[in-house]
Design brief:
By secondary structure, the protein is mainly α. Helix content is 43%, strand content 0%.
């Protein structure tokens, strides 16, 4: 892949993600990964 073609493709991806971030409720086909982290309070590590 030529360097100008790579940067053109990269620029399109960045614009797509910028559009998705600016309005997440607009229909844009951008996969979003949600990570849920919970703290387990049943274990006390100091005991």
């Amino acid at each position: 892949m030529k360097i100008p073609a790579f940067f053109k493709l990269l620029n399109k991806k960045i614009e797509k993600y910028d559009k998705a971030v600016s309005n997440p409720f607009e229909t844009v086909n951008v996969p979003i990964t949600i990570i849920w982290v919970e703290e387990d309070k049943s274990k006390n590590l100091r005991d």
